Amino acid sequence: MAFQALTDHERSDIHAGALRVLEEVGLAAPKALVDKLRERGVGTGGAGERLRLSRASIDAALALAPGTVHLGARGAGLGAILDGRRSHAATDGCGAKVVDLDTGNVRPSVLADVARSARLTDALAEFDVYWMMVSAQDVPPSLRVPLEYLTALRNTVKHVQMIDVTRREEAEQLAGMARLLNDEGVVDGPPVSALISVVSPLRLDPDGTEAALTLAAAGLPVVCCSMPIASVTAPATAAGNLLLAHAESLAFITIIETLHPGAPVIYCSFASFAEPRTGATNYDDPRTGWTAAAAAELGRSLRIPCFSSGGLLAMLAKPDLLSGGGLIETSTILAYDQMVIDHEALRDCRLAAAVQEVSAETLAEDVIREVGPGGHFLAQKHTLRHMKEFVVTKFAGDRERASKEARRLIESHAVEPLAPAVDAALEHLASTTSSAAAR
User: Which of 44-53, 215-224, 359-368, 410-419 has the lowest mean pLDDT?
Assistant: First the structure.
């Protein structure tokens, strides 16, 4: 099925506008980072902590970025190869609350919810990547990231992507755990990746940027994300929102590739709209699907892997990664029944976006001729063959049934355990200081 959110001219206009913004306006950035980039000939004009990037430096960085990124997984054949050939689906992330399966009440999320959501993701075949869905509020902040990762790793053999890595020390711990997994042959390829975002508009978070550079130095994929909100942290138009997000993601990629050439990076634009009465993020805005598709097209035009969000329109744009599953209330609350419902919707989106075969068999001209006027097709062998392709909706609109299915899968689905020695070594790395974990 052919679909194009942006014409070639429109895509070119947005890219050219983003380049002008980065060269003429720039980003607020830590002075040490600005100085380091200028030593390498990147960053022009101005003084202090404003980073301006020339088109030449951006083009040079994009040329260094790999066109294919491998997301490793414990399960054989379950790693995600991001090379433009297939859209891999990730769960949503990262909430701080959960709808309790037993009581139905909303409560703070805990480490056990990481385990349950990872196990449920492992059981739901349409999800290819477990994007850390909730933060463990019952774990000390200094240990939260490594223990969340270890818990997810124990409960899914699919790739795990982190979203709340905000400090260099956390990145060092993940790098140490990844190195152990690779050394022990548990995972082929990077066993963990992380999404780290620019702070819209046009500001680099010092700690998050340092964490991203630490991960890149270790060869772990970094999702260079921008999440502007139209009319709040971005222009109030869809096109202006896209332009800002594109500029921010381009800048992040340029920084990483300049300092760590060839590091695996993923372009990501999660541009959204504000609810006009409150200013809160409004994922129900009808332009969200178009914006997600347009963002995917912008990312693909750079010839590097891209990550987008949304439903059918985004799927039609063929991003390498597509998020959206299991969180409600503007992605702040995990709902296990919603994971099951969204999984079914994802299946339907894949089918709707798939190219349908047109051949003598599917055109069925001979069958139409045989049935003729006023007949029916129920008794035809052709019908029996092809009705197997039909889908049955089980969970849409039926939260009670979806909740029972979520509980059944969480309680019954078996996940291949880590070898005891590897598990113990990971536990040690996750529970010690980052400097020890990184060695």
Answer: 44-53
Q: Which residues make Cβ contacts (< 8 Å) with residue 372, sequence separation at least 6?
A: none
Give the mean model confidence (pLDDT) for residues 171-197.
97
CA triple 267-156-118, angle to 5 deg: 75
Residue 436 has pLDDT above 50, yes or no: no
CA distance 116 to 285: 31
Would you list the DSSP string of 3-49? --SS-HHHHHHHHHHHHHHHHHT-EE--HHHHHHHHHTT---S--TT
Strands 88-90 and 321-323: parallel
Cis peptide before 306 (omega within 30 of 0): no
- In our burial notation (b when 16+ CB lie closer than 10 A, e otherwise), range 374-391 reads eeeeeebebeeeeeeeee
CB proximity list for 225: less than 8 A, separation 6 or greater: 195, 196, 197, 198, 249, 252, 268, 269, 270, 307
> Rounded to whole angstroms, how far apart are CA atoms 91 and 123?
13
Model confidence pLDDT, tens digit, residues 129-151: 999 999 999 999 999 999 999 99
**Residue % of the chain over a pLDDT of 90:** 86
Whole-number Å distance between alpha carbons of 136 and 134: 7
- Is there a contact between 174 and 202 (Cβ–Cβ < 8 Å)? no
Say whether pLDDT at 46 is over 70.
no
Buried b (16+ CB within 10 A) or exposed e, 206-215: ebbbbbbbbb
* Phi and psi, residue 421, nearest 5°: -65, -40
Q: Name the residue with higher pLDDT: 250 or 276.
A: 250
> Under a CB-based contact definition with an 8 Å cutoff, are residues 162 and 178 in contact?
no
